[in-house]
Design brief:
The chain is of the alpha+beta class and 354 residues long. It has eleven helices and eight strands. The strands form two sheets. Strands 3, 4, 5, 6, 7 and 8 form a six-stranded mixed beta sheet that branches. Strands 1-2 form a two-stranded antiparallel ribbon.
Amino acid sequence: MTEALEKFIKKQKMQAKAQETGDQGYLMVDFGEFQGRSMKKVYEDQSKEAQALIKYLVKADARPNTNMAVFQAYVLKRRTSAEAPAPQCTLPPGRPLSAQPSAQRQLFLTGFAEEDDEELAAAASQCETQQTTATVHVEAFARIPPAATLAAHQPPVHQPPARQPPVHQPPARQPPAHQPPALQPPVHQPPALQPPAHQPPAELPSHWKDQLPPSQQEWIRQTLFKANPRTGKPELVPQLKLWWYPPQPPLIHTQPPASPDLFFPRPLFLWMPHKMWLNPVVCVRPVCGKHRLTAAGLYRTVRRVLDVDGWYDVATEYLECKRCLKKYPAWSEDILGQLGLGHRSQFPALLTYR
């Protein structure tokens, strides 16, 4: 733990020094056998291992934003600066001087202990002469008037106007005296929709006819059922509800009614929890393993219920277990017990056997 902390503190100090001096060579190497040393010291190390690492970094494919990529950029920068040609100044003939350029504006740094002052003066004089000659050429070039100024002092040259070739204009096209009307493509028109053929009114299910009086059959057939357009069989209307009420008899009769049943119709309560609310109900037999029940049409029996102020009929749906083929009327206790309290309370009757 202490070694890792010391390495972290050292790395922070090296990063601060690199930011202060602007030299990336003070950053720490974080990989290989040279980790912990600065990039500058590793680059200037003349050992075989260090030079092998430098050669590898020159051609390596370093992953961006890593310590290796930073070290690679530093190595390439150092190599580019080392390979750049140094500016040289022409010296007079004689003994050559080993001059090296410096960043502190020194013209010559010689390796000899004793230098002739006359040679140094002659070299400085020649450099000054070359600089003066270049300045004279620049000033002479600046004194040359531009081409626009020379052209302004030249006498104007008379030039005859250029001959324009005649412009050929085609004769205007005259519209034809008579043009036949353009042929229009025939427009496809869909055949007109024919009114649907007259469909006979829906009939009650056969098992309901045997249990409902004629006065109940007529208004239930017209209100609750419609004929299937393909098969003609009766089917329920799509907008289902719980309570269905018969139409009221007319208040004035021009003729006596044929039967008093017109004045005594009773409402119908339609109990279909699976079809109306899609309540999931299952088979209660243990062998079926709570298999889901499916709709099996209308229950054949229509029950008549005595209310506090009259009578009403109750009809329901049939639910079937496809595994054991057992059928349940939706008003049975096996089905009512599986409904939620909100739906269960909608059923108004307490059915009993005679």
